[in-house]
Automatic annotation (TrEMBL):
<comment type="similarity">
    <text>Belongs to the EIF-2B alpha/beta/delta subunits family. MtnA subfamily.</text>
</comment>
<dbReference type="InterPro" id="IPR027363">
    <property type="entry name" value="M1Pi_N"/>
</dbReference>
<dbReference type="Pfam" id="PF01008">
    <property type="entry name" value="IF-2B"/>
</dbReference>
<dbReference type="GO" id="GO:0046523">
    <property type="term" value="F:S-methyl-5-thioribose-1-phosphate isomerase activity"/>
</dbReference>
<comment type="pathway">
    <text>Amino-acid biosynthesis; L-methionine biosynthesis via salvage pathway; L-methionine from S-methyl-5-thio-alpha-D-ribose 1-phosphate: step 1/6.</text>
</comment>
<dbReference type="InterPro" id="IPR037171">
    <property type="entry name" value="NagB/RpiA_transferase-like"/>
</dbReference>
<feature type="binding site">
    <location>
        <begin position="54"/>
        <end position="56"/>
    </location>
    <ligand>
        <name>substrate</name>
    </ligand>
</feature>
<feature type="active site" description="Proton donor">
    <location>
        <position position="245"/>
    </location>
</feature>
<dbReference type="GO" id="GO:0019509">
    <property type="term" value="P:L-methionine salvage from methylthioadenosine"/>
</dbReference>
<protein>
    <recommendedName>
        <fullName>Methylthioribose-1-phosphate isomerase</fullName>
        <ecNumber>5.3.1.23</ecNumber>
    </recommendedName>
</protein>
<feature type="binding site">
    <location>
        <begin position="255"/>
        <end position="256"/>
    </location>
    <ligand>
        <name>substrate</name>
    </ligand>
</feature>
<dbReference type="InterPro" id="IPR011559">
    <property type="entry name" value="Initiation_fac_2B_a/b/d"/>
</dbReference>
<keyword id="KW-0486">Methionine biosynthesis</keyword>
<feature type="binding site">
    <location>
        <position position="204"/>
    </location>
    <ligand>
        <name>substrate</name>
    </ligand>
</feature>
<dbReference type="InterPro" id="IPR005251">
    <property type="entry name" value="IF-M1Pi"/>
</dbReference>
<comment type="function">
    <text>Catalyzes the interconversion of methylthioribose-1-phosphate (MTR-1-P) into methylthioribulose-1-phosphate (MTRu-1-P). Also catalyzes the interconversion of 5-deoxyribose 1-phosphate and 5-deoxyribulose 1-phosphate. Part of a bifunctional DHAP-shunt salvage pathway for SAM by-products.</text>
</comment>
<dbReference type="InterPro" id="IPR000649">
    <property type="entry name" value="IF-2B-related"/>
</dbReference>
Length: 359
């Protein structure tokens, strides 16, 4: 099952067609389905920075194709000039957002392909970049399928599953990460329910996760972020599955702000807490979560809702987009190769030591 089967009326999150990058503008969902034709490097940077494309895996795929778009006007340069310009433009695209490791991982992989490619001219180098971007895209779809296959065993009939933000099909180019086990279990005919946190301040849970789960026919209930612990206390949640934007070597991980509080509440109520983790989000160069840079976004996202001010004029606001959850609060990581349990530093490295982010 792919995302098009789940959502036949919804455009693909990311599409590469006739040397053109097409992105579903997620800031317009669920009210409008708008596909943006991205034509230059600046448009790629804005689309990532402004969250028109979002979710760590989708950002990685968009960055790969986006670098191809950025280099289309350089195909007439000498090979050495093309490679130098590629490095410069990749470094600039890497500044779009700091926390999701897939952005830098994808761009490093693309520039490495260009360095290792024995091309005779820049046009051939460009073709090699497009080929690598397609590989990254295909791998993302396969990673989601693997996570779904291994994670669905965690969901039993009658379970209540809680998720946060959007680690769904809209955050990837496949079934999603945290939602992949949900879709796999739903496909298998298992009857269960999902609680989706609204996810302030940009409401990715309300606008995206609740939307896509409802479209796929999953039994989903939208709740306020602040209601999650209360729902747990009532015995309605048997399992928490969240996504991640970066996982440190010891298993500390960064995810949408509010994840840490969920993990603490889940531990208090004895609820298993799992992280859906494609290998592309592993960052073995960061020993612990303290090394993960947390994106701080504009305070207006907190003081305004749907363009309307909801807070006093001139009030100070903090808007960290992510938090770091320590590995001690994690029951396990659901990866495309299986479910990983503690000790995470040893088990993650033993399973993924050769992956790109392990370098």
């Amino acid at each position: 099952m792919n995302s098009q089967t789940l959502f036949p009326t919804l455009a693909p999150t990311i599409e590469w067609r006739d040397d053109t990058l097409l992105l579903l503008d997620q800031t317009r969902l669920p009210h409008e389905i708008v596909v943006e034709h991205v034509t230059d490097a600046a448009a790629v940077w804005r689309a990532i920075h402004e969250l028109r494309v979002r979710g760590a895996p989708a950002i990685g795929v968009a960055a790969a194709y986006g670098l191809c778009v950025a280099m289309q006007d350089a195909r007439g340069l000498p090979v050495a000039g093309f490679r130098a310009e590629l490095e410069r433009r990749a470094a600039w695209l890497d500044t779009a957002r700091p926390t999701a490791v897939n952005l830098s991982w994808s761009l490093r992989r693309m520039t490495r392909r260009a360095r290792e490619c024995n091309a005779q001219d820049s046009a051939a180098l460009y073709d090699a970049l497009v080929d690598e971007a397609r590989r990254i895209h295909e791998e993302d779809i396969a990673l989601c399928e693997g996570i779904g296959e291994h994670g669905m065993s965690l969901i039993a009939p009658g379970n209540g599953v809680l998720t946060h933000c959007n680690a769904g099909a809209l955050a990837t180019t496949g079934l999603g990460t945290a939602t992949a086990p949900i879709y796999a279990a739903h496909r298998a005919g298992i009857a269960f329910s999902v609680f989706a946190d609204e996810t302030r301040p940009l409401l990715q849970g309300a606008r995206l996760t609740a939307f896509e789960l409802q479209q796929a026919g999953v039994d989903v209930t939208l709740i306020m972020d602040g209601a999650a612990a209360s729902i747990m206390s009532q015995g309605l949640v048997d399992l928490v599955i969240v996504g991640t934007d970066r996982v440190a070597a010891n298993g500390d991980f960064a995810n949408k702000i509010g994840t840490l509080g969920l993990a603490i509440a889940a531990r208090h109520y004895g609820i298993p807490f799992y992280v859906a983790c494609p290998s592309s989000t592993l960052d073995f160069s960061s020993a612990t979560g303290e090394r993960i840079e947390i994106e701080e976004r504009s305070g207006t996202e907190v003081t305004h809702l749907a363009g309307q001010r909801v807070a006093p004029e001139n009030i100070k606001a903090r808007n960290p987009a992510f938090d770091v959850t320590p590995h001690e609060l994690v029951t396990g990581f659901i990866t495309e190769r299986g479910i990983v349990k503690a000790p995470f530093e040893r088990s993650l490295k033993s399973l993924f030591a050769a992956e790109g982010n392990a370098a």
